[in-house]
Design brief:
The chain is an alpha+beta fold. The chain is built from 12 helices and 21 strands. The protein folds into 2 domains: about 190 residues, Glycosyltransferase, CATH 1.50.10.100; about 230 residues, Beta-galactosidase, Chain A, domain 5 (Distorted Sandwich), CATH 2.70.98. Strands 11-12-13-14-21-18-17-16 form an 8-stranded antiparallel β-sheet, with no helix packed on it. It has a 5-stranded antiparallel β-sheet with strand order 3-4-5-6-7, with no helix packed on it.
Length: about 550
Protein backbone atom coordinates (compact mmCIF):
# COMPACT_ATOMS: atom_id res chain seq x y z
CA UNK A 1 0.00 0.00 0.00
CA UNK A 2 2.84 2.37 0.86
CA UNK A 3 4.52 1.84 -2.54
CA UNK A 4 1.20 2.42 -4.34
CA UNK A 5 0.72 5.70 -2.47
CA UNK A 6 4.29 6.76 -3.23
CA UNK A 7 3.77 6.10 -6.94
CA UNK A 8 0.47 8.00 -6.93
CA UNK A 9 2.17 10.89 -5.16
CA UNK A 10 4.92 11.06 -7.78
CA UNK A 11 2.45 11.04 -10.63
CA UNK A 12 0.20 13.64 -8.97
CA UNK A 13 3.07 16.01 -8.15
CA UNK A 14 4.37 15.63 -11.70
CA UNK A 15 1.09 16.25 -13.49
CA UNK A 16 -0.16 19.13 -11.36
CA UNK A 17 2.35 21.53 -12.89
CA UNK A 18 1.44 20.84 -16.52
CA UNK A 19 -0.46 23.28 -18.70
CA UNK A 20 -3.90 22.52 -20.02
CA UNK A 21 -2.62 22.43 -23.61
CA UNK A 22 -0.17 19.68 -22.69
CA UNK A 23 -3.03 17.45 -21.51
CA UNK A 24 -5.27 18.45 -24.39
CA UNK A 25 -2.79 17.83 -27.19
CA UNK A 26 -1.50 14.58 -25.71
CA UNK A 27 -5.05 13.24 -25.73
CA UNK A 28 -5.83 14.77 -29.12
CA UNK A 29 -2.78 13.19 -30.80
CA UNK A 30 -3.64 9.78 -29.34
CA UNK A 31 -7.06 9.98 -30.95
CA UNK A 32 -6.13 11.63 -34.25
CA UNK A 33 -3.14 10.32 -36.18
CA UNK A 34 -1.56 12.38 -38.96
CA UNK A 35 -2.46 11.65 -42.58
CA UNK A 36 -0.65 13.10 -45.58
CA UNK A 37 -1.26 13.21 -49.32
CA UNK A 38 0.82 14.45 -52.19
CA UNK A 39 0.88 18.24 -52.27
CA UNK A 40 1.15 20.42 -55.35
CA UNK A 41 4.31 22.35 -54.59
CA UNK A 42 7.37 23.64 -56.38
CA UNK A 43 10.57 25.41 -55.57
CA UNK A 44 11.88 28.42 -57.39
CA UNK A 45 14.40 28.80 -54.64
CA UNK A 46 16.78 31.66 -55.21
CA UNK A 47 18.93 31.28 -52.11
CA UNK A 48 21.85 29.01 -51.30
CA UNK A 49 22.60 27.89 -47.75
CA UNK A 50 26.25 28.70 -47.12
CA UNK A 51 26.45 28.83 -43.33
CA UNK A 52 28.96 26.70 -41.41
CA UNK A 53 28.43 22.93 -41.65
CA UNK A 54 29.79 21.67 -38.34
CA UNK A 55 28.11 18.36 -37.55
CA UNK A 56 30.25 15.30 -36.96
CA UNK A 57 30.39 12.66 -39.68
CA UNK A 58 27.81 9.94 -39.00
CA UNK A 59 27.31 8.20 -42.43
CA UNK A 60 30.31 6.11 -43.53
CA UNK A 61 29.05 4.10 -46.48
CA UNK A 62 25.71 2.91 -47.85
CA UNK A 63 25.01 1.00 -44.61
CA UNK A 64 27.45 1.95 -41.85
CA UNK A 65 26.47 4.78 -39.49
CA UNK A 66 27.57 5.98 -36.06
CA UNK A 67 25.73 8.03 -33.44
CA UNK A 68 26.37 8.77 -29.76
CA UNK A 69 29.65 6.84 -29.91
CA UNK A 70 27.83 3.69 -31.08
CA UNK A 71 28.19 2.17 -34.57
CA UNK A 72 25.30 0.58 -36.47
CA UNK A 73 24.32 -0.95 -39.80
CA UNK A 74 21.21 0.09 -41.73
CA UNK A 75 20.76 -2.78 -44.17
CA UNK A 76 16.99 -2.80 -44.71
CA UNK A 77 13.74 -1.07 -43.82
CA UNK A 78 13.56 -2.88 -40.46
CA UNK A 79 16.78 -1.29 -39.25
CA UNK A 80 15.37 2.26 -39.31
CA UNK A 81 13.31 1.26 -36.27
CA UNK A 82 15.33 -1.61 -34.86
CA UNK A 83 14.73 -2.36 -31.15
CA UNK A 84 18.43 -3.21 -30.89
CA UNK A 85 19.18 0.52 -30.70
CA UNK A 86 18.02 3.10 -28.16
CA UNK A 87 15.28 5.55 -29.03
CA UNK A 88 17.74 8.44 -28.96
CA UNK A 89 20.14 6.61 -31.29
CA UNK A 90 17.29 5.94 -33.75
CA UNK A 91 16.24 9.57 -33.58
CA UNK A 92 19.78 10.59 -34.52
CA UNK A 93 19.65 8.18 -37.46
CA UNK A 94 16.59 9.99 -38.81
CA UNK A 95 18.02 13.49 -38.31
CA UNK A 96 20.38 13.24 -41.33
CA UNK A 97 22.92 15.50 -39.62
CA UNK A 98 25.64 14.13 -41.90
CA UNK A 99 24.18 16.21 -44.75
CA UNK A 100 25.57 19.23 -42.96
CA UNK A 101 28.75 17.81 -41.50
CA UNK A 102 32.15 19.39 -42.01
CA UNK A 103 33.02 16.86 -44.75
CA UNK A 104 29.55 16.52 -46.31
CA UNK A 105 30.78 17.27 -49.84
CA UNK A 106 32.86 14.07 -49.83
CA UNK A 107 29.75 11.89 -49.45
CA UNK A 108 27.36 13.28 -52.06
CA UNK A 109 26.57 9.85 -53.51
CA UNK A 110 26.08 8.27 -50.08
CA UNK A 111 23.72 11.10 -49.12
CA UNK A 112 21.65 10.69 -52.28
CA UNK A 113 21.30 6.97 -51.61
CA UNK A 114 20.36 7.46 -47.97
CA UNK A 115 17.71 10.04 -48.89
CA UNK A 116 16.28 7.70 -51.54
CA UNK A 117 16.30 4.83 -49.06
CA UNK A 118 14.62 6.91 -46.38
CA UNK A 119 11.79 7.86 -48.73
CA UNK A 120 11.35 4.27 -49.94
CA UNK A 121 11.75 2.50 -46.58
CA UNK A 122 9.83 4.87 -44.29
CA UNK A 123 6.18 5.02 -45.42
CA UNK A 124 4.31 8.18 -44.41
CA UNK A 125 3.42 8.47 -40.73
CA UNK A 126 5.05 5.18 -39.72
CA UNK A 127 8.00 4.69 -37.39
CA UNK A 128 10.45 6.92 -35.53
CA UNK A 129 11.25 9.02 -38.57
CA UNK A 130 7.72 10.39 -38.77
CA UNK A 131 7.60 11.59 -35.17
CA UNK A 132 7.62 15.38 -34.95
CA UNK A 133 11.07 15.95 -33.44
CA UNK A 134 13.08 13.88 -35.96
CA UNK A 135 10.93 15.31 -38.78
CA UNK A 136 11.91 18.78 -37.60
CA UNK A 137 15.65 18.21 -37.52
CA UNK A 138 15.65 16.23 -40.76
CA UNK A 139 13.68 18.87 -42.66
CA UNK A 140 16.19 21.57 -41.77
CA UNK A 141 19.07 19.33 -42.87
CA UNK A 142 17.32 18.40 -46.13
CA UNK A 143 16.39 21.99 -46.97
CA UNK A 144 19.96 23.19 -46.43
CA UNK A 145 21.35 20.31 -48.53
CA UNK A 146 18.87 20.65 -51.40
CA UNK A 147 19.24 24.45 -51.45
CA UNK A 148 22.79 23.91 -52.69
CA UNK A 149 21.54 22.00 -55.77
CA UNK A 150 20.73 23.67 -59.09
CA UNK A 151 17.87 21.30 -59.87
CA UNK A 152 15.84 19.26 -57.42
CA UNK A 153 13.58 16.43 -58.55
CA UNK A 154 9.92 16.86 -57.67
CA UNK A 155 9.88 13.63 -55.64
CA UNK A 156 12.23 15.23 -53.10
CA UNK A 157 10.25 18.45 -52.95
CA UNK A 158 7.09 16.41 -52.52
CA UNK A 159 8.65 14.41 -49.68
CA UNK A 160 9.74 17.62 -47.91
CA UNK A 161 6.21 19.02 -48.24
CA UNK A 162 4.61 15.78 -47.00
CA UNK A 163 6.90 15.70 -43.97
CA UNK A 164 6.12 19.33 -43.19
CA UNK A 165 2.42 18.62 -43.55
CA UNK A 166 2.73 15.69 -41.13
CA UNK A 167 4.57 17.98 -38.73
CA UNK A 168 1.76 20.56 -38.77
CA UNK A 169 -0.61 17.82 -37.60
CA UNK A 170 1.50 16.87 -34.58
CA UNK A 171 3.24 20.06 -33.46
CA UNK A 172 4.58 19.31 -30.00
CA UNK A 173 2.29 21.50 -27.92
CA UNK A 174 2.07 18.54 -25.53
CA UNK A 175 5.81 18.84 -24.79
CA UNK A 176 6.61 22.53 -25.52
CA UNK A 177 10.11 23.90 -24.89
CA UNK A 178 12.98 23.03 -27.21
CA UNK A 179 10.85 20.50 -29.11
CA UNK A 180 8.27 23.12 -30.04
CA UNK A 181 11.05 25.51 -31.04
CA UNK A 182 12.54 22.84 -33.33
CA UNK A 183 9.11 22.27 -34.93
CA UNK A 184 8.75 25.99 -35.64
CA UNK A 185 12.25 26.33 -37.06
CA UNK A 186 11.64 23.43 -39.45
CA UNK A 187 8.37 24.90 -40.71
CA UNK A 188 10.06 28.26 -41.29
CA UNK A 189 12.90 26.66 -43.25
CA UNK A 190 10.49 24.67 -45.42
CA UNK A 191 8.19 27.66 -45.89
CA UNK A 192 11.09 29.85 -46.98
CA UNK A 193 12.40 27.16 -49.37
CA UNK A 194 9.25 25.93 -51.13
CA UNK A 195 6.75 28.00 -53.10
CA UNK A 196 2.94 28.02 -53.10
CA UNK A 197 0.05 28.20 -50.67
CA UNK A 198 1.19 25.21 -48.60
CA UNK A 199 4.65 26.74 -48.24
CA UNK A 200 3.04 29.92 -46.93
CA UNK A 201 0.95 27.83 -44.53
CA UNK A 202 4.10 26.21 -43.16
CA UNK A 203 5.90 29.54 -42.85
CA UNK A 204 3.01 31.30 -41.15
CA UNK A 205 2.57 28.54 -38.58
CA UNK A 206 6.30 28.40 -37.83
CA UNK A 207 6.52 32.15 -37.31
CA UNK A 208 3.40 32.18 -35.17
CA UNK A 209 5.01 29.64 -32.85
CA UNK A 210 8.31 31.54 -32.75
CA UNK A 211 6.54 34.81 -31.97
CA UNK A 212 5.09 33.09 -28.91
CA UNK A 213 8.06 30.98 -27.87
CA UNK A 214 11.11 33.22 -28.22
CA UNK A 215 9.97 35.63 -25.47
CA UNK A 216 8.94 32.63 -23.37
CA UNK A 217 12.04 30.50 -23.83
CA UNK A 218 14.82 33.09 -23.54
CA UNK A 219 15.01 34.71 -20.10
CA UNK A 220 15.96 38.31 -19.33
CA UNK A 221 19.59 37.39 -18.70
CA UNK A 222 19.75 35.51 -22.01
CA UNK A 223 19.51 31.93 -20.72
CA UNK A 224 17.31 29.34 -22.36
CA UNK A 225 14.60 28.60 -19.83
CA UNK A 226 15.23 24.85 -19.53
CA UNK A 227 18.47 25.85 -17.76
CA UNK A 228 20.72 23.31 -19.44
CA UNK A 229 23.88 24.84 -20.95
CA UNK A 230 23.78 22.16 -23.68
CA UNK A 231 20.23 22.96 -24.72
CA UNK A 232 21.06 26.64 -24.50
CA UNK A 233 23.75 26.02 -27.13
CA UNK A 234 21.28 24.10 -29.32
CA UNK A 235 18.56 26.76 -29.14
CA UNK A 236 21.03 29.60 -29.61
CA UNK A 237 22.37 27.91 -32.74
CA UNK A 238 18.79 27.51 -33.97
CA UNK A 239 18.21 31.22 -33.43
CA UNK A 240 21.42 32.11 -35.27
CA UNK A 241 20.33 29.98 -38.23
CA UNK A 242 16.95 31.72 -38.31
CA UNK A 243 18.76 35.07 -38.39
CA UNK A 244 20.97 33.76 -41.19
CA UNK A 245 17.93 32.46 -43.09
CA UNK A 246 16.34 35.91 -42.91
CA UNK A 247 19.52 37.48 -44.31
CA UNK A 248 20.02 34.89 -47.06
CA UNK A 249 16.42 34.48 -48.21
CA UNK A 250 15.38 38.14 -47.77
CA UNK A 251 11.93 36.82 -46.94
CA UNK A 252 9.89 39.85 -45.79
CA UNK A 253 8.21 37.98 -42.92
CA UNK A 254 11.58 36.93 -41.54
CA UNK A 255 13.20 40.30 -42.06
CA UNK A 256 10.59 42.11 -40.00
CA UNK A 257 11.50 39.90 -37.03
CA UNK A 258 15.26 39.97 -37.58
CA UNK A 259 16.08 42.90 -35.28
CA UNK A 260 14.31 41.31 -32.31
CA UNK A 261 15.91 37.93 -32.99
CA UNK A 262 19.34 39.60 -33.03
CA UNK A 263 18.68 41.32 -29.73
CA UNK A 264 17.71 38.04 -28.07
CA UNK A 265 20.71 36.25 -29.61
CA UNK A 266 23.20 38.78 -28.25
CA UNK A 267 21.92 38.33 -24.70
CA UNK A 268 22.04 34.54 -25.16
CA UNK A 269 25.65 34.79 -26.35
CA UNK A 270 26.58 36.79 -23.26
CA UNK A 271 24.99 34.17 -21.00
CA UNK A 272 26.83 31.35 -22.74
CA UNK A 273 30.14 33.21 -22.26
CA UNK A 274 29.42 33.38 -18.53
CA UNK A 275 28.89 29.60 -18.25
CA UNK A 276 32.14 28.33 -19.78
CA UNK A 277 35.16 26.84 -18.11
CA UNK A 278 38.51 28.08 -19.39
CA UNK A 279 38.82 24.88 -21.43
CA UNK A 280 36.21 26.54 -23.66
CA UNK A 281 33.39 24.10 -22.92
CA UNK A 282 30.14 24.22 -20.97
CA UNK A 283 29.40 23.48 -17.34
CA UNK A 284 27.40 20.33 -16.57
CA UNK A 285 24.23 21.53 -14.89
CA UNK A 286 21.05 19.57 -15.64
CA UNK A 287 21.21 17.49 -18.84
CA UNK A 288 24.50 18.56 -20.36
CA UNK A 289 27.23 16.88 -22.38
CA UNK A 290 29.84 17.82 -24.94
CA UNK A 291 29.48 16.74 -28.57
CA UNK A 292 25.73 17.22 -29.06
CA UNK A 293 25.61 20.95 -29.78
CA UNK A 294 28.09 23.07 -31.69
CA UNK A 295 31.17 24.01 -29.68
CA UNK A 296 30.93 27.38 -27.94
CA UNK A 297 33.71 28.89 -30.06
CA UNK A 298 31.93 27.75 -33.22
CA UNK A 299 28.79 29.49 -31.96
CA UNK A 300 30.70 32.71 -31.27
CA UNK A 301 32.42 32.57 -34.67
CA UNK A 302 29.07 32.10 -36.44
CA UNK A 303 27.54 34.96 -34.47
CA UNK A 304 30.38 37.27 -35.50
CA UNK A 305 29.85 36.29 -39.15
CA UNK A 306 26.26 37.44 -38.71
CA UNK A 307 27.40 40.78 -37.28
CA UNK A 308 26.38 40.02 -33.70
CA UNK A 309 28.28 41.24 -30.66
CA UNK A 310 29.44 38.60 -28.19
CA UNK A 311 31.83 40.02 -25.65
CA UNK A 312 32.86 38.06 -22.59
CA UNK A 313 32.63 39.64 -19.14
CA UNK A 314 35.77 39.00 -17.09
CA UNK A 315 34.38 40.47 -13.86
CA UNK A 316 35.24 38.71 -10.63
CA UNK A 317 31.53 38.02 -10.03
CA UNK A 318 28.67 37.53 -12.48
CA UNK A 319 25.22 36.65 -11.15
CA UNK A 320 22.65 35.64 -13.75
CA UNK A 321 19.65 36.18 -11.52
CA UNK A 322 16.88 35.28 -13.97
CA UNK A 323 18.34 31.85 -14.69
CA UNK A 324 20.00 31.27 -11.30
CA UNK A 325 23.70 30.75 -12.00
CA UNK A 326 26.64 32.73 -10.68
CA UNK A 327 30.30 32.65 -11.69
CA UNK A 328 33.36 33.62 -9.67
CA UNK A 329 36.50 34.31 -11.69
CA UNK A 330 39.60 35.06 -9.59
CA UNK A 331 42.25 34.53 -12.24
CA UNK A 332 43.45 31.47 -10.32
CA UNK A 333 40.21 29.49 -10.52
CA UNK A 334 36.66 29.69 -11.84
CA UNK A 335 33.71 28.61 -9.76
CA UNK A 336 30.13 28.20 -10.99
CA UNK A 337 27.29 28.14 -8.44
CA UNK A 338 23.81 26.77 -9.17
CA UNK A 339 21.06 28.63 -7.33
CA UNK A 340 18.52 27.89 -10.07
CA UNK A 341 15.16 26.19 -10.02
CA UNK A 342 14.65 23.01 -12.04
CA UNK A 343 13.45 25.00 -15.05
CA UNK A 344 9.90 25.88 -16.09
CA UNK A 345 7.48 24.03 -13.82
CA UNK A 346 5.58 22.61 -16.80
CA UNK A 347 8.78 21.37 -18.47
CA UNK A 348 11.41 19.93 -16.08
CA UNK A 349 12.31 16.97 -18.31
CA UNK A 350 16.01 17.86 -18.59
CA UNK A 351 16.39 18.83 -14.93
CA UNK A 352 18.71 17.18 -12.45
CA UNK A 353 18.39 17.35 -8.67
CA UNK A 354 21.46 19.59 -8.51
CA UNK A 355 20.27 22.50 -6.36
CA UNK A 356 23.17 24.51 -4.84
CA UNK A 357 25.76 22.43 -6.68
CA UNK A 358 28.95 23.96 -8.02
CA UNK A 359 31.78 23.29 -10.46
CA UNK A 360 35.35 24.58 -10.23
CA UNK A 361 38.35 24.69 -12.54
CA UNK A 362 41.90 25.92 -12.02
CA UNK A 363 43.22 27.37 -15.25
CA UNK A 364 42.06 25.13 -18.07
CA UNK A 365 41.79 22.07 -15.83
CA UNK A 366 38.42 21.10 -14.40
CA UNK A 367 38.79 20.01 -10.78
CA UNK A 368 35.33 19.52 -9.25
CA UNK A 369 32.69 18.37 -11.73
CA UNK A 370 29.05 17.38 -11.82
CA UNK A 371 28.71 13.89 -13.23
CA UNK A 372 27.36 14.84 -16.68
CA UNK A 373 24.96 12.95 -18.92
CA UNK A 374 25.74 9.83 -20.95
CA UNK A 375 22.28 8.49 -21.81
CA UNK A 376 18.56 9.17 -21.94
CA UNK A 377 15.71 6.68 -21.62
CA UNK A 378 14.47 4.92 -18.50
CA UNK A 379 17.14 3.04 -16.58
CA UNK A 380 18.75 2.95 -13.12
CA UNK A 381 21.84 4.66 -14.56
CA UNK A 382 19.80 7.48 -16.10
CA UNK A 383 18.13 8.01 -12.73
CA UNK A 384 21.46 7.89 -10.86
CA UNK A 385 22.93 10.58 -13.08
CA UNK A 386 19.99 12.88 -12.31
CA UNK A 387 19.99 12.37 -8.53
CA UNK A 388 21.58 14.74 -6.05
CA UNK A 389 24.38 12.35 -5.14
CA UNK A 390 25.77 12.71 -8.68
CA UNK A 391 26.35 16.43 -8.06
CA UNK A 392 28.47 18.59 -5.79
CA UNK A 393 25.94 19.36 -3.12
CA UNK A 394 24.22 17.97 -0.02
CA UNK A 395 22.04 14.87 0.23
CA UNK A 396 19.65 14.79 3.19
CA UNK A 397 18.41 11.48 4.66
CA UNK A 398 19.47 9.70 1.48
CA UNK A 399 17.00 11.71 -0.61
CA UNK A 400 17.46 13.95 -3.63
CA UNK A 401 16.66 17.65 -3.42
CA UNK A 402 14.08 17.28 -6.21
CA UNK A 403 12.05 14.13 -6.75
CA UNK A 404 13.45 13.04 -10.12
CA UNK A 405 12.06 9.80 -11.51
CA UNK A 406 11.66 7.86 -14.74
CA UNK A 407 13.72 9.32 -17.59
CA UNK A 408 12.40 12.88 -17.73
CA UNK A 409 10.06 13.34 -14.79
CA UNK A 410 10.18 15.53 -11.68
CA UNK A 411 7.53 15.38 -8.96
CA UNK A 412 8.09 17.55 -5.88
CA UNK A 413 10.90 19.92 -6.71
CA UNK A 414 13.24 22.35 -4.98
CA UNK A 415 12.78 26.09 -5.29
CA UNK A 416 15.97 28.08 -4.76
CA UNK A 417 16.45 31.64 -3.53
CA UNK A 418 19.57 33.75 -4.00
CA UNK A 419 20.11 35.44 -0.64
CA UNK A 420 23.32 37.35 -1.28
CA UNK A 421 25.61 38.09 -4.20
CA UNK A 422 28.40 40.51 -3.34
CA UNK A 423 31.98 41.32 -4.30
CA UNK A 424 34.03 43.71 -2.18
CA UNK A 425 37.77 44.23 -2.60
CA UNK A 426 38.17 40.88 -4.34
CA UNK A 427 36.19 38.91 -1.73
CA UNK A 428 33.01 37.31 -3.09
CA UNK A 429 30.10 36.16 -0.97
CA UNK A 430 27.35 34.06 -2.52
CA UNK A 431 24.54 32.67 -0.43
CA UNK A 432 21.42 30.76 -1.49
CA UNK A 433 18.93 28.31 -0.06
CA UNK A 434 16.44 25.77 -1.37
CA UNK A 435 13.34 24.14 0.10
CA UNK A 436 13.50 20.78 -1.66
CA UNK A 437 13.89 18.88 1.62
CA UNK A 438 10.82 20.43 3.26
CA UNK A 439 8.88 17.42 1.96
CA UNK A 440 10.82 15.27 4.45
CA UNK A 441 10.32 14.75 8.17
CA UNK A 442 11.72 16.83 9.74
CA UNK A 443 11.28 19.60 7.16
CA UNK A 444 14.71 20.85 6.13
CA UNK A 445 15.89 23.98 4.33
CA UNK A 446 19.41 23.78 2.91
CA UNK A 447 21.45 26.99 2.81
CA UNK A 448 24.88 27.20 1.19
CA UNK A 449 27.23 30.17 1.53
CA UNK A 450 30.38 30.46 -0.56
CA UNK A 451 33.06 32.90 0.54
CA UNK A 452 35.80 33.28 -2.02
CA UNK A 453 39.05 35.18 -2.37
CA UNK A 454 41.89 34.97 -4.89
CA UNK A 455 43.24 31.53 -3.96
CA UNK A 456 40.67 29.71 -1.82
CA UNK A 457 36.98 29.45 -1.09
CA UNK A 458 34.96 28.23 1.86
CA UNK A 459 31.66 26.36 1.57
CA UNK A 460 29.33 26.60 4.54
CA UNK A 461 26.38 24.23 4.35
CA UNK A 462 23.66 24.82 6.92
CA UNK A 463 20.50 22.78 7.46
CA UNK A 464 17.55 24.25 9.32
CA UNK A 465 17.61 21.27 11.70
CA UNK A 466 20.23 18.66 12.55
CA UNK A 467 19.67 15.46 10.59
CA UNK A 468 21.61 12.81 8.69
CA UNK A 469 23.22 14.42 5.66
CA UNK A 470 26.22 14.04 3.39
CA UNK A 471 28.17 16.40 1.15
CA UNK A 472 29.13 14.85 -2.21
CA UNK A 473 32.01 16.17 -4.32
CA UNK A 474 33.19 14.68 -7.63
CA UNK A 475 36.78 14.96 -8.84
CA UNK A 476 37.71 15.20 -12.53
CA UNK A 477 39.34 11.97 -13.81
CA UNK A 478 42.57 13.79 -14.77
CA UNK A 479 43.07 15.03 -11.21
CA UNK A 480 45.19 12.74 -9.01
CA UNK A 481 44.45 12.16 -5.34
CA UNK A 482 47.94 12.09 -3.80
CA UNK A 483 47.28 12.22 -0.06
CA UNK A 484 44.28 11.38 2.11
CA UNK A 485 43.89 12.16 5.80
CA UNK A 486 40.83 11.86 8.00
CA UNK A 487 39.60 15.40 7.29
CA UNK A 488 41.88 16.50 4.47
CA UNK A 489 43.09 15.38 1.09
CA UNK A 490 45.45 16.75 -1.54
CA UNK A 491 44.81 16.77 -5.28
CA UNK A 492 47.38 17.17 -8.02
CA UNK A 493 46.44 18.62 -11.40
CA UNK A 494 48.24 17.57 -14.61
CA UNK A 495 50.02 20.94 -14.60
CA UNK A 496 51.31 20.02 -11.07
CA UNK A 497 49.16 22.62 -9.33
CA UNK A 498 47.96 21.32 -5.96
CA UNK A 499 44.45 21.72 -4.56
CA UNK A 500 43.80 21.08 -0.88
CA UNK A 501 40.40 20.01 0.45
CA UNK A 502 39.72 20.38 4.19
CA UNK A 503 36.50 19.67 6.10
CA UNK A 504 35.23 19.56 9.67
CA UNK A 505 34.18 15.89 9.60
CA UNK A 506 35.89 12.66 8.48
CA UNK A 507 35.70 12.17 4.74
CA UNK A 508 35.21 9.06 2.60
CA UNK A 509 36.80 8.57 -0.82
CA UNK A 510 34.79 6.40 -3.26
CA UNK A 511 34.90 5.28 -6.87
CA UNK A 512 32.47 6.95 -9.26
CA UNK A 513 32.08 7.81 -12.96
CA UNK A 514 32.07 10.99 -15.03
CA UNK A 515 30.17 11.38 -18.31
CA UNK A 516 31.34 14.23 -20.58
CA UNK A 517 29.59 12.83 -23.69
CA UNK A 518 26.70 10.55 -24.55
CA UNK A 519 27.87 6.95 -24.58
CA UNK A 520 31.06 7.81 -22.64
CA UNK A 521 31.95 6.96 -19.05
CA UNK A 522 35.26 7.64 -17.26
CA UNK A 523 36.16 6.34 -13.79
CA UNK A 524 36.80 9.07 -11.24
CA UNK A 525 36.95 9.66 -7.50
CA UNK A 526 34.25 11.07 -5.29
CA UNK A 527 34.48 12.64 -1.83
CA UNK A 528 31.64 12.04 0.62
CA UNK A 529 31.49 13.88 3.94
CA UNK A 530 28.71 12.61 6.25
CA UNK A 531 27.51 15.04 8.93
CA UNK A 532 24.57 15.16 11.36
CA UNK A 533 25.03 18.47 13.16
CA UNK A 534 23.15 20.56 10.60
CA UNK A 535 26.34 22.42 9.70
CA UNK A 536 29.43 21.64 7.63
CA UNK A 537 32.29 23.92 6.64
CA UNK A 538 34.77 22.93 3.96
CA UNK A 539 37.73 24.86 2.57
CA UNK A 540 39.29 24.43 -0.87
CA UNK A 541 42.67 26.04 -1.51
CA UNK A 542 44.71 26.27 -4.71
CA UNK A 543 48.38 25.97 -3.76
CA UNK A 544 51.61 26.65 -5.58
CA UNK A 545 52.90 24.25 -8.22
CA UNK A 546 54.55 21.19 -6.77
CA UNK A 547 57.67 22.01 -8.77
Amino acid sequence: MKSIFAKFSKVFHTLKYLRFEQFYFRLFYKMKKPKVDNLLINSNNNWFWSAPALNNQSFYDDEKVSFLNQDGLIKNSFDWNSPHYSKLWLYNLHYFDDLNSESYAEREIIHCRFIDRWIAENPPCQGNGWEPYPISLRLVNWVKWFSRKDNVDSKYLNSIAMQADALTQQVEYHILGNHLFANAKALVFVGAYLQGKDAKRFLDLGLKILDREIPEQFLDDGAHFELSPMYHEILLWDLLELIDLADISQNPSLLERNAEWRNVAEKALTWLQSMLHLDGEITFFNDAAIGIAAKPQQIFDYAKQLGLSCYGDESILISNKSSGYSRVNTGVYRLFFDHANVGPDYLPGHAHADSLSFEMSAGVQRVFVNSGTSLYGVSPERLRQRETAAHNTVVVNGQSSSEVWSGFRVARRAYATLLKSDETDGVVTLSASHDGYKRLKPKIVHKRTITSNAEHFILLDELSQPTDASFHLHIHPDVLVINVEEQKLMLQLPCLTLVQFECECPLILEESTWHPEFGVSFPNKKIIVPFNTGRLSTKITILKDKS
